[in-house]
Amino acid sequence: MASQEKPARENRTKQMIVRAAADLMQRRGYIGTGLADILAQAEAPRGSLYYHFPGGKREIAIEAVRYSGRIFGRDLERIAAESCSLDAYFSALAALSKRDLIATDYDAGCPVAATALDVPNDEHDILDACALAFSLWSDAIAEALRKHGMPCERAAKLGPFFVNTLLGATMSARAFRGTAVIDEALHQLRRLS
User: Fewer CB under 10 Å: which end of the chain, C or N?
Assistant: First the structure.
């Protein structure tokens, strides 16, 4: 029994570190997120950091971006599955895009976008993880558009366009401290579909 508890506890600690890093990077970017802050938020002992992440902050950032990409990708798939029409999907997409902004009083935007903008250009592995997340989201949106009757080729082109538009709108909404820009972006995207 004790031997099974140790791996579960170790895995839980690793997950808490990744989640804490994702949350902090969402609010502060890559550069503004320190290892001590990650450990404090995760309530993890210092030794666990390099035990789970021998590559240090860089390795944690890659895992945090991957985690954030998967979580938002699942959210995109969920709203697509729950939407009975394209209009309902757009409404759910707007709500999803606003969720973290509103919940944090505009303190947190998109952790992947914040990292992609903030990370040094020579951090290719972190940028590759960001690009993979953006591609995952583009594919999920394209699939939702196809589900609601859009031709495959058009949906494939609009998926990345929607992601880029929504990321830009999210950054603007954070700067303006209001979500009207997201509503306007979705209004314009509706007109394209």
Answer: N
pLDDT in tens, 137-170: 999 999 999 999 999 999 999 999 999 999 999 9
Structure tokens at 70: 């998967």
CATH topology for 2-192? Tetracycline Repressor; domain 2 (1.10.357)
Exposure pattern of 59-82 as b/e (b: 16+ CB <10 Å)?
Answer: bbbbbbbbbbbeebbebbeebbee
Q: What is the rounded distance in angstroms from the CA atom of residue 170 to the CA atom of residue 94?
A: 10
Q: Which residue type is seen at 106? A: Y
Tens-place pLDDT, residues 43-83: 998 888 889 999 999 999 999 999 999 999 999 999 999 99
End-to-end Cα distance, the chain:
56
Distance CA 134, CA 129 (A): 9
Residue 101 burial by CB count (10 A; 0-12/13-18/19+): exposed, middle or buried? buried
pTM for this predicted structure: 0.89
